[in-house]
Each structure stands twice: as structure tokens, then as C-alpha cells.
User: Fold these one by one.
Assistant:
Number 1:
Amino acid sequence: MTQTPPPGKPFRKDHKGRPGDPRHERNALTGQHAPETDADVEALPVPEGPTEIISTDYEIGQDNIEGRKLVAFDIHNPVFMFSAVTIVLFTAATLLFPTQLGPFFGSLRDIVTSRFDWFFIIAGNVFVLLSLGLILSPLGSIRLGGPQATPDFTLTGWFAMLFAAGMGIGLMFYGVSEPLGHFTASLGGPVVENGVRTDWAPLDGAVGDELAARRLAMAATIFHWGLHPWAIYAVVALALALFAYNKGLPLTLRSVFYPIFGERIWGWPGHVIDVMAVLATLFGLATSLGIGAEQATAGFGFLFGWTATDTSKTVLIILITAVATGSVVMGVEKGVKRLSEINMVMAIILLLFVILVGPTWQIITGFFGNLGAYATNILPLSNPFGRDDDNFRQGWTAFYWAWWISWSPFVGMFIARVSRGRTVRQFLIAVLIVPSLISVLWMTTFGGTAISLTLAGFSGVTDAALELQLFQMLSQLPLTAITSFVGIVLVIVFFVTSSDSGSLVIDTIAAGGKINAPVPQRIFWCSFEGLVAIALLLGGGLTALQAMAVSTGLPFTVVLLGACFAIVKGLMAERRELLMPGPGAGGRVSSS
């Protein structure tokens, strides 16, 4: 005859359970037997099949403060309060003292990227090597959610959400400007003044050689949009998915560090990690939203002659934040997923249009040639030492890595939420390889077309501001008004999908891991993303946006390196679990 513990009292942590033993049926979020459930909170699915569920006395939401009268809220006290107060104070200071803070943001960005460029580059290499190693290793066969778990979304819907959340606005903004900028700098070659290189060419450039400059420019661009950034996202997403869906811990960044800190993750070490995740996510999103506003207003000015002012950018951010708020209230399935699929279709249509009416053969052959150039140059571009291309390495690469890392809590958690049921190998191939190839095709199409136009004698793209270069390129193709309008809509919808999915993620972290907290909290975070973007635009423009992205990305890089260790340890435990005879669908309870 089996025995059950008193209600609410967990068995000791070293209890493993046996098939058919009711003591084995423990909750995947808390590790406790038969806990009471909150009808207002959507629970994470229980692992399906034998997994190493981590038994812990912590109960999700136990540190939360709840209110149900005037405004419903359910917040994790230390994380929400410290994050919200920090963001409110920062926003107020930036709006009150824009002229004083503008130069500060510029110097902050330069200090972080110049002094820590080596650290960002080394960390990026670690993330890529870990991801590729897991794809090739036996650990890649482990399924997120348990051996019997099935995917929650179709392959098409999954890919759409991965891509829209990951890089939408950035591809629209830099798809033309970055390849063209690298090409121009490479063609000019190194420029030395007073013994210091002042040019922006990658590596040693390709002075006077148009073909070599083109290949080097595309290799440098793909380096910034290929394996390295997607590996950053993959590390965070895999860590979150593993410890939530297989280990039974709350879906927050602190859970990833259970192998390192143990039960201490429920205290201040965990609070610090989650607060850093909230701040990195919000400032990373604000950077992208500000860039999107810059380009959208520039597009409206290009098409309709509207003047791009701080007021027009502010109004645009407010309007789009309102749309994003409506989407975030609807949730992942009804709001984010549908917008992502619409955006993917529009992006594919614009991409195919440029391929068909642009230099088609050059784009097709350039795709494979650019992949070859990327393979040839990836090692020297990944090398953090012994280089003299400081402007490129610090101003481009270090900034990008910090930006991707600041985005990684948001994108990683969002990817984790929609990736249950995939094996680690499927997950990493989808998150690492497929988006990288799409980015190569996008950059080859838009950047390659702009380079071809420039070589043909058209200087309009090169002479235009960064936010206008896409529209200048489209002006040399048929149906300019239509394609430019589609480009603006893409920027706006990417803006919305980033804002709404980011708000869902921040809300989950600030609610202590509850993935369906009250709607007013989602509205709060969505609104504050827009306010921070407005404050940064008014307090220093693009420089301020970039400064906050790199400054929050720096400390979070340390967090991600710790997550790499936790991933390997967690997957090895899952591998042992699969090889051991154990219980069935309920999973195996462990204390490690």
C-alpha cells in the first residue's frame, strides 16, 4: 500500500518515485506533490516521458504580491519593483536633461565597445562553438519537453515567429546600408592618420579591387547577421526551454542557474539575474524600436514629403505602441503568431520582387559566392587580437554582439515558449542554420543590389542617410511607391511584433515565472518600452539608443557564459535519464 504525504508537504528531495507510485506524480513547476493550482495562471506543461525533474521547495509565485480590486496585478516583488523604479528614474532623467545626457551616451557607447570588444568577440565564439557542438553530439537527440512531447506549433508558424522576433527591424534598417558601407570602406582601403587607422574597413580592406571589396563587405555583413547572433539567441532559448520543460522549473532566467547556485536562485542571486534580464530586454527593445521609428518616418518623408522630426517619431512610436498593446493583450496564439505570419509573407514578397526585377543572376550567384567569402573570412573576423581595424571591430562587431545579447532574454524566452516538442538538434538547426541562411539571402539581395547600383554610377544610395538608403535603392526599381510603402509597413509590423512579444517576456520574468499574468501588467511593460524609446530618441538619438544596448549587454554577457555551463550539465543529466530504466510519462524526480 502506497502512502501520500500530508497536503502541501513535499517528499524529501532525494525521493525518486516508482512507476505507479502516486508520490512520483509531482508538479513540474514546484516539484511538490498535489499543489493547489491558480485558475488564473496558465501552467507550463508537465514533462512527457522520463526527464530529470528538479525537486525544489520553491513554489512559483510564492514571492509575488497580488491585487484584484481596482487593477489586477500579480508581480514578483523584488524583481518588478527594482526593475520598474530603475526604468522610471532613467526615463525621467533622460527626458528632463536631454542636452546633458546626449554627450554622456556617446562616451558610454565608445568606452564599452572599445575596452570590451575582445570580451564580446570571445563570448560570441563560445556560443557558436557550443551550438555547433550540440548539433553534432548525442545530446542533440534530447527532446525539449520530454521524450514523448509533441510540437505546439506547425513548422511554418514556428519559423515565422522565430524570424519576426529575432531580427526584423534590424534587417530592414541595415539590409542596404551595412553591405554598402562595408563595400565603400573596403574599396578605399586602410587610412592611417598619426599612426592610427581612421577608416571603417573590415580587416585590411581591398583597396581598388571591386570584386574583392564586394566579397569582403558581404562576408563582414553575414558575420554580423549569421551564426554568431543566432547562436546567442539559441543559447538563451535552449537553456530556458530545457530547465522549464524538462526540469520543471519556472520559465525565468534564474532557473537556468540552478546547477550553479542551487536553492539560492530563489533569493538575491536569482533576483539580480532576472532584473538584469528585464533591463537588458527593455533597453535592447527600445534600441530597435527607436531605429524602426527613424526608418519609418524617413520612409514617410521619402514617399509623401513629410518632415522627419522628433515630434513625428514620437507620435509614430505612440501609435505603434498602442497597436502592440492590443496584440499583447490578445496573447501569443491570436496576436503575436498572426502578425508574425503576415510579416513573413510580406517580407518574402518584397524579397522575391527585388530578386526578380533587380540583378537576378548576380543575386543568385552572389548568394553562394557570399557564403564562400563568409567561410573564408569567419576566422579572421572572429579573432579578437592582433588586429588594427579598430573602428570596424569596435563600432560594428562589438556593438552588434552587445545588441544581440541585450535582445537575447526577450528573443530567447520567446523562442523557448514556442519551441516545446523539438529535439535539441532540430531546435538548434532551426534557430541557428535556417535564419542565418535567410539573413544571407536578404543581405545578398538588398545589399548586393545597392552595391550593383553604385558600381553602375548611381550615387543616391551612398549619399543618403542610413534610414533612407533602403528607399533610395527601391527608387531605382519598378513600382517604387508600392515597394517603398511595403517596406514601411514591414518596419512597422516588425516594430509591433518585437514590442508585443518582448512585453510578454518581460511580464513573465517580472511575474516570477507566471506565463499568463494579469493583462494590465502586459500593458504596463508595453507602454514603458515605448516611453523608453521616446526618451532615448529625445535624449541623444541613435547614439543614446546604441549606448544603452551595449551597456546592458556587457554584464549580461557574463550571465550567458554561465548559462553555457548550465546547458551542458543539464543535457548530460537528461542523457543519463534516458539511458536509465525509470518511470514513464510522469518523469523522474531528482535533487540535482
Number 2:
Amino acid sequence: MTPPSSEPAPSASPPSLTEVESHGVDRIPDAERTATPLDLFRLAFGGANTFSTCVLGAFPILFGLSFWQGLAATLLGVFVGALILCPMAVFGPVNGTNNAVSSSAHLGVHGRVVGSFLSLLTAIAFFSISVWSSGDALVGGAHRLFGLSRGDLTYAVAYALFAGLVLAVCVYGFRFMLFVNKVAVASATVLFLLGAIAFAGDFDASYAGVFTDSADAATDALFWPSFIGAALIVLSNPVSFGAFLGDWSRYIPATTPRRRVVGAAFLSQIATLLPFVFGLATASIIASKAPEYVDPAAPDFVGGLLAISPTWFFLPVCLLALIGGMSTGTTSLYGTGLDFSSVFPRLSRVQATVLVGLLSIVFIFVGRFGLDLVQSISTFATMIITCTTPWMVVMMLGFYTRRGWYDPEALQVFNRRQRGGRYWFAHGWNWRGMTAWWVSALLGVLFTNIPGQFVGPLGDLANGIDIGLPLSLAVAAVLYLALLRLFPEPRAVYGPEGARLARTVEVAVPPITGPGTNAGEPAAVPSGSAVD
């Protein structure tokens, strides 16, 4: 896993903020890789240092936990989620492209569409959460400050303006988004700390929740399902970045030490304890002073926060909603527009971004005003994460077994509408990785148990505890490694040092043919014998 040393250091200065990014998912030239691990930290932390994360931080209180129990669940979820997420940052510097394209090496040239589909659903879900929560906070704060009407038209205008701002930033591309997140990280952090001052007098760390010494047996029996469920909801936030880390880290030079890239991704999620704990603490205050806002059947964290806020904090709440929502929205939407342009090559990155943005805006308006999907968005997000996590496991284990070696040209076969290459496998599909993914994702869904929202057919087998995500993680790891041993992959997909934890077989690599190639030109394959 030694990083390449032959690539030159970046020589070009970063482009202007107002210069529209031209790159799609093609490999970023070495000279244009001017980003740093600190930039990755800013983007990943900025995308989570938001109002949406505060809403997720309130869930332990909604599940009946005390403040200290909720804090334990939050720490567990953030730490485990950060550990799962951080290895996904290395694909961008190594391959110079996004993670969906890198997945071609493990799922096949055509199998990479799985990552594109998962990132599209994740982006729509979290973009919607950011627009809804931020729009509601802006309108609520303006109502308390200026008496602004809170009718459907007001909300519609707020959603449209906010979504339009996010879309504009994404159209300009990576540099503009990085600038927005640099501002957002510092500003949102200051506003959260200001919020700590605003609520310090009302906060009581002894908030007991429902699992007290006087609770009946039926209530006590729900403690562990509630604790684990809260931790898994918190964990879903860092895991949701798995499909997007490569979108940002692809601008980091390949020679950057991988420990720094992984460390930046890990620390970016540890830093999200700031919004998580803010949400947890304010939710405990709401539960004490305005319990109607934390009714699990109809929770309204934004409304509750405004109800308990001192008047002078209304404006900071509005600013926090605007700044934080921009961070979440841009980090979600940018990567999906980028990847969508590779799935449909007739669309440029800008055209694909606009199309995905408009589709997301339609979803937001239909969900908010038509089908009342706001309550079920957490279920939607949880299900997506349950399906995304085993995909990440396949990617990370694949990276380890390949010793971090990839063929950049073979990764781009799908994007160029070509055929063949090292990652062609069976007609463009690597059934080993595909099988490990869909079997573990299906099991995760079947065992999911979200009380009051979704319970899978097998969700009650663990006494009400949601084991869907841990089970899908374990099954993906064991099944994928077993398939690599039982059904060896071609020797050519591994680097000069050979395979790790896997067997290989000598198989001829089909030549890359199609646009821009000579039909009879064979792919370059390193020599080497079968590895056991």
C-alpha cells in the first residue's frame, strides 16, 4: 500500500472561485491536484456542522433516553461511524476520481452503477433534510422576529430560494463549494458556541428520560432497543458521506500520505460532536420546558428550539439554518451531479448537476406539500445507509486485498463507453462483489427495526433491537472474503505485489475497445504467477 512516488508535485495554482469547474469524473491531472487533507476536513465537517445534524442529535431524547444515556449513544454512533467512513477517503487521491468510478475495480465496469444509484438516493434524502430543516428554521425565526406569515406560500418561497442558492454553488463546482464550506465551518461553530451561552441557564444534565428507577417492566424492556436505535441513527450521519468522500479527495495529490487523508476524514466526524451534542442538549431542554415538541408521533425540533430560545438568539438561529444548510446541501448535491454526468455521458457536469438539482427540488415540494413525506424521511435515509454500508465494506476490503493498486485507465472504461480491460470480469459485472453487496444489504433491510416507522419481516427476532446495520456489515465482510477465496479473481486486477487474503487465477484480460482505442490493441498486463 505504498503511495506512488513517481508523480510530480502539483504545479498549477488553484483556479478562480468564479471559474466553472470543467472536470467530470475523469481522472484529475496531477498538476491540478491542489487540495489538502485540511480541505477534505473542512468539506466533510462543514457538510455535517449543520442544523440537520442537530435534528439527528435530538433522537436519543425522542427515544426516551436521559441526557447522559443519549450522550453515550451519540459518542458510540459518531466514533464507530467515523471508523467505518474514514478509509473511504483514500480512493480519491489514489485514482483521481470519485468513489463510484473506483468501485469498478470491485463490482465491475457496469457494476459501478450501484454506487452511482446509492449516491443519488443519499443526496436527495440529505439535500431534502437540509432544505426542509433550514427552510423551517428561517421562516420560524422570521415569524418570531418580524411577524412574517407562516403559510404554505412563505415556506415554498423559502425552500425555492434556499435550494436555488445551493444549486448555484454546485454549478460553479469544487472550488466555490470549498470556499462556502471554509466560511461555514467557522461561522456555524461560532453560532453553536453562542447557542451554548443562550441555553446554559436552562440546561440540566440530570434530565432523566423515561428509563428511571420508577419505570415499569415494559418500559425497561425498551431501553436497549432505544439505546441501540439512537446510536444507529447517529452512526448513519458519518456513514452517509461514504459515497461522496472521493468527490472531494480526488483533488488531493496522490503522493499525500494516506494516514493524513484518513485522519482528516476521521477527525471531521469527531468534530461533529459539536452539533450532535447541541441537538441533544437543546432537545433535553425542550423535553422539560415544551414537551409537546418532542412527541415521538409528531416531533418538531425546530419549532421547539424556537419556543425555548431567548429573543436575541432568533437571528443566530436563522443564520445557523442558512449557513449550515448550504454546507449540507452543496456537499450532497455536488457529488451526485458529478457522477450523474458519467452515467449519462451526453450530459456535462453542469447539465447533470442542474438536472439532479431540479429533480431534488421537485421531490422536496412534493414531499412537503403533497404527500407529507417529512415524517418518513428519516426512514428513507436509514434504509439508504443500510444498503450503502455493505457497498463500503466491499470497497474497503477490495482496497486491502489489492494492496491499494488500481489501473486508472481501466476504471474509466464505463465513462468512455468502452469495453474490456482488467475490470471487465463477466460482461462488465464482478459477481463476487455484487453478491456480497446485495445479500448483505437485503439482510440488513429484513432485520431493520425503527419503532413506529419501519420494521422489517425479521426485525423482531432480536427482541426489538435493530441489528440490520451491524448484521449487514458483518455479512458483507465475511461473504466477500469467502467469495474471493473460493472463486479467485484474475491475477491482472492485482498489482505487482500480488493479492492479499485472496487467491488469483491466470486469465487473459480482454483488450479495451471502443471510442478512442484501436480494436486490436491489448491491455497492458503485468507478468506474474497465480497467488495462493
Number 3:
Amino acid sequence: MHRRILVPSVLTASLLLAIPASAADASPGAPGIGDPYYPAGGNGGYDVSHYDLRLRYQPRTDLLEGTATLLATTRQNLSRFNLDFGLDVGDVRVNGRKASFARTGDHELEITPAAPLEKNKPVSVVVTYAGKPSELKIGGWTAWHRTPDGGVAAQEPDSAVWWFPSNDHPLDKATYDVSVSVPDGTQAISNGVLQSQSSRLGWTRFNWRSNKPQASYLATLAVGRFDITTDRTAKGLPVLNAYSVDLGDNAGAARASVERTAEVAEWLEGLFGPYPFNALGGYVPNVTSGFALETQTRPFYSPRQFANGANVSVVVHELAHQWYGDSVSVKGWKDIWVNEGFARYSQWLWSQKEGEGTAQELADYVYALHPADDPFWTVKPGDPGPDKQFDIAVYDRGALALQALRNEIGDEDFFAILKGWPAAHANGNAAVGDFVRYAEKVSGKPLAGLFDTWLYEPSKPAGGVGAAGAAGATGAAGERTVRADAAPAQPKSWKKIAATNAIHDHGNGSESESGHEH
């Protein structure tokens, strides 16, 4: 029999090995994810894979009660971590054990688990909370829209803070189950597919599931009284559209536009490839705002978008985002052109399909519309800054960049890029630079100079949107460009497209219309 005797140094080493690494070198997760536009946005130290939200909402009082369960993975040894949230918190549990919590700033919930968390381990976080979202103001704004019969969460770059705790940045996408109990006779609309609904004791519960990665700002909730239409596409995809029952004179135009959702999505599949999600639809609540938003699988539309009649162009814009912005999301908010330039260009392509002006005619018109001294040309779509993130130049100059690219490389490569890019980055994140490199790879041409001219130079590019930027050139698409000093005719579609210029005008209007959290 051999007995091993541990000398003190060996004993000390063995005891250290018994202590989890997290207890030895754990540190707090960062209170921001590192986005220079919004330093407080998101958090560091973990990645969320799934949100399970179990909610109860009383429209009469605007009281929202909730239990949020977050499934995540730690990315460092964590002594503490943050969630982005603004309502009152009653209890927090981490891995089933009661955790302490505190508030810092205007939307940071600091959570200290009972024991430090080890790196690369699964973790569950359960937060119970309650509050009135419309009374929560952050930076003077609220992203929660009160309606005559309920409330709506829809805003960019953030809305989650008003109704559930999250890692609130597009870099941390997750799947969602949203279960909402509301008084009988009231509906709750969210993302994805309605899995089931049931009624008990005067309340009806709606259970929604969004099964593909989704950014927190793209999660939506609408409670109220809606007229709902349902259908399936030829491929079997469920379609659900919802309209507040009290839209008044805008009701007909809203329906005439949004009911074409499946048709528009089918057309966009020809440009961008297979539709990336498990459901289609849209909703029009009775809000006073003027913008629209690409909330995943079910875009939000303000009734004012249809004040002048039906406008399918706004539906084209928001559905294009399902590929460009939702499936492929920004790495940082400075990359907003990867969302908005492509959604606007989709409107130009729809105009061409409808015989109301080609993409080239629209490009020529936009180019001529803004003289060289127009501040429009000082905005850099490739990095516009947080104050200009949703400036019209990000949309229109951003679309001009795509027409310039099309003319430079020709239709075959251009449309191969439009379809290949969402497939290459499906369910992920990408930056402007990633797109430039992808376009160079597909076309075999150096394109950094072209993108620098159209996305980054704070001045009007000389010579129009020609094949090589020369006035009077003929693009590779076979569409003639005009001279820089010409006055092209206004395309027939222009007024419809211009009517959607406020679709992301999140900063104008009353507090009920705006939500700049950070």
C-alpha cells in the first residue's frame, strides 16, 4: 500500500484548482457593448440566445406586469453584469438563485449574482417587473405609444427598454417567445407566428414565437382592438395583418397597401433570395406618429403613412428591411446605410417594375434635386453620425451609391450581389466595409474609390451617376445618365416615394412619437 503525502506547496495548488476560475478573476461586464454612437447601448460580458417574456397588460391603466427569462452564455468571468431596462424591478434570479440588483444611469440594471459566473457557461436570468411604459422618459423621450385602446412598442434605435430587460444592441440577436395576457375583446400582436391563444376569467393570452435571431429593437408589442386578416402564401408562409378598428379615413388606404404584403415579399424574393423568416405581415395601430419601422416579420406602420391614399412603396421599404437590416443587421449603428440605402433602392426598383420611373431616372432626379451647396451632400451615409443617422441623405444618397455601383459593374454582378449578400450574412451582422469587400469579390473590380465618393466624401460627386461618374455616360444597365447641369423630369413615382421620407423620422414630433434612449 502506498500512501501519498501532500507537502504544503502541493496542497495549496490543489486547493486553488478546486476554486472556480470565476471566483479568482471575475470582473464586471461592461455597461455598454462598445458602439461609439450610443456608448450606453447594450452590455458586455454575455450573449443572449433566447428571451421568454410572460406579460400582462391593462390598457385602461397602461400597467404592464412581466416576467422575463433570458437564456445567455457568459463571455468572461462575471462578478456583475448589466441589462438595459427602465421599469421598476421586483426580483432578479440568476441560475435560480436570488441576485442583488441596483440602478445606475437612466436605463442600466446592474445585477450581482449570488456567486460569480464562469466564462463560456450557460446562464438563466429571471426578472420580474411592473410599471407604466408611457410614464418612463429617458432623455425626455418615450418609445411607448399610447393608443385609445392600448399601447404599442415600436421605435429605433431602441424600444426594448420600455417593456422588457435586454442586451439592447443589434450585435446580440436572439429568438423570442412573447406571451401576453390582455382583457377579453383586446388583442396582443407581436413578432413571428401566433402559437396559441386561450381565455380565462376575463383575460385572453396570446403566445407568439419568433424563431430566428432578432435584434432587440425589432421586437414589437401592440395591444388594442384590431381587425385581423390571415392567409398563407403559395409556399405556406403564414400572413397576419392587423389594423386598429378606429383608423378612420386612413383605414381603406392602409388596408389597400398592407394587404399587398405577400405580393411585395414574393417580388423581393426575386431580388434578394428566399424570405428569411417564419411569418409575414404588418400592423397599423391608431398612433399619432408618422414613421414606419421594420419590426421583424411584422412591420409597424403609422396611419399617417396613408393620409394621401394607398402607398405600397412604404410596404416595399419595410419588407426590404427583412433581408437588409433584420436578417443582416448592422455591426454598429454607423453602418445604417447597409439597412437604409438598400431599402430605399428597393423602392426605386419597385417604381421601375410599376412603370413609374426607372432606378436611373430616379437617381438622375435626386442628383439634380440637390445643388452642390445643399447640406444634403455633407452627410456621409457610410458614417453619418448619431445626429444624422436617419437623415434623408442616408436614404437617397445611399441609394445613389447603389445606382453608381450598378452602372460600374453591370446588372449581372449587381443583382448577384443583391441576392448573395443576405445569404452570406443571414441571421448575422455586417458593416459597410464588409459589403464593399463582398462587392469587390463578386465583381472582381476595385470599388473602394467609388464607395468613398458616394458614401464618405462630404461633397457632391462630379458628373452625375454614370458608369464611371462622367456626365452624359451610359450605365452598364443600359440606362442613360444625364448631364450634371440638366433638369430631368420628375418621375411619376417620386411623390409616393417622397411621402415615405418620414418613415424613420423618429426625432420629430411629440414625446409620444420619439424614443432616442441613449
